[in-house]
Amino acid sequence: MEIKGKVWKFGPDIDTDAIIPARYLNTSDPEELARHCMEDADPSFPARVRPGDVIVAGKNFGCGSSREHAPIAIKAAGVSCVIAASFARIFYRNAFNIGLPIFESPEAAGGIGQGDEVAVDAAAGIITDLTTGKTYRAAPVPPFMRQIIAAGGLINYVAGKVRGNA
Amino acid sequence: MAMTITEKILADHAGKKQVEPGELISVKVDLVLGNDITAPVAIKEFEKIGVAEVFDRERVALVPDHFTPNKDIKSAEQSKILREFSKKHNLANYFEVGRAGIEHCLLPEEGLVGPGDLVIGADSHTCTYGALGAFSTGVGSTDLAAAMALGETWLKVPESIKFEYDGEMQPWVGGKDMILHTIGDIGVDGALYKAMEFTGPAVEKLSMDGRFTMCNMAVEAGGKNGIIAPDETTRVYVEGRCKRPYRFYRSDPDAKYEKIYRYDAAQIEPQVAFPHLPENSRPVSEAGNIEIDQVVIGSCTNGRMEDLREAARVLKGRKVHKNVRLIIFPGTPKIYLQALREGLIETFVEAGGVVSTPTCGPCLGGHSGILARGERCVATTNRNFVGRMGHPESEVYLSNPAVAAASAVLGRIGGPWEVD
């Protein structure tokens, strides 16, 4: 899978309230959530984000709530992947479970600038900043997480397991 | 091989003699939990799996507590999804408004979580139950869906960090101050992916309520779980309460830790975490003159009996400052009733506060206490992120209940010793 897109750069500790404020969580409709994605971090984001764009952020991205609405909102907003120095634990897991590609790389998060064009080779975990020409390597994805991705997300993985047991 | 309490619980639930940090394991769950925000998504995913029933109707708990009593039509529709699913699957642990409280206050109170349990919940503060000596951690809705179907989940065994608290706690210092001080020291990702084990004489002296508060905020340091080895205090709490058999685990003396932090509890003052991260904590004496508009006392962090008693001790015979709105929300109906019987509710209302039904509402800016642009609130809740309690340009300061109550009287952030 090759991902290519323009970068939205954010700082460290972008929490789930910034990604999708709780005041909108009286619905779980992805399209509606997307309309408020990242608005407390950058109010212009929902109107200006374009399909394929990439979020690049500092450490501890997705800290806070367990709300799966956070990766759902990002995915529904058309963001192709998130690159961060590190991810909060529950967000990391949720992103894989719903099929939002994420890449952990402190070097990439530090080196890539706002508005840069980046390309990501998801299988190899190689991030290229097409604007600067620099390449970065993402932390390898644990084999079990790759199984979940290969199955098409956790629910497909579990459905397969249930059928196997029957 | 020596193991930590976390490793022992995980090993037993994985059916293994031992586990090591970094290992991926499949574990049986004793209880799974969802609320009115996370369960609707989980139920939708559950229905895609193709199983007819949940793995065990006794071990799925659904608690509509975030936007309830429902604040609008949309949240009513979300709650209805839980209600109908619970009826369809004949769930033993669905809690309707009036019998529902804030999930992390309610489930231990009802004896649904016990020492040695493994619990996952689609709410980040599920880590609260570590106070009972259980392994509990927050997950998302899809993980909840999978666990509702299979009765198991996968976990990576976390490395453990030990936090040891020696010395005597000062007056007005409690679990909230110990955990805010700790997060202030290690940062909001200081325990990312790790198990936080709280030990030492000061922790042993904490009541169950104080322990719940400490473990509740493990996630605020990025922790996978917070845990305290069960002891006599735990035994007194769970005896006659727990619905299922429980088991006390403790770490081996030679268990391996990634790191050990030591604190002198005597040196910890009541803390205030400044906007916009829980790690921005400092002693209340160094807060400066910060005028406030609202005080919120309650939540899964500090909405228990001990918390309400502490707030009442400060508020008794005093009045809330004319510029301040004080909102108190007990954690569960039982806590509410006990507070009523003890005369605490009377104290709160006489002081000029309002007492809300048990709900998560104000903590996450859902309903019942939203902040306007530029307003400041002292809250006993767990998060002070941008926009957490309302307008993105409002501010939340986290504290213990005594500091919050004193601040309500003073009209500015201050300690309980300042109200006289």
Describe this protein's structure.
The complex is a heterodimer of chains A (166) and B (420). Chain A is α/β, with parallel strands linked by helices and 166 residues long. Chain A has one domain (2-165): Aconitase, domain 4 (Alpha-Beta Barrel). Chain A contains 8 helices and 7 strands; from the N terminus they run βαααβαβαβαβββαα. Chain A has a 7-stranded mixed sheet. In chain A, helix 5 links the parallel strand 3 (81-84) and strand 4 (102-104). In chain A, helix 7 packs across helix 8 (154-165). Chain A starts with a strand and ends with a helix. Chain B is of the alpha/beta class and 420 residues long. Chain B has 2 domains: 5-239 and 251-263, Aconitase, domain 3, CATH 3.30.499.10; 271-413, Aconitase, domain 3 (2-Layer Sandwich), CATH 3.30.499.10. Helices cover 31% and strands 18% of the residues of chain B. Chain B contains 14 helices and 18 strands. In chain B, strands 4-3-2-5-6 form a 5-stranded parallel sheet. In chain B, strands 16-15-14-17-18 form a 5-stranded parallel sheet. In chain B, strands 10-9-8-11 form a 4-stranded parallel sheet. In chain B, helix 2 (39-49) links the parallel strand 2 (31-35) and strand 3 (60-63). In chain B, helix 2 (39-49) crosses helix 5 (141-150), helix 11 (305-315) packs across helix 13 (344-351) and helix 11 (305-315) runs parallel beside helix 14 (401-410). The longest helix of chain B has 16 residues, at 73-88. Chain B is globular. The interface between A and B is large, with 43 and 54 residues.
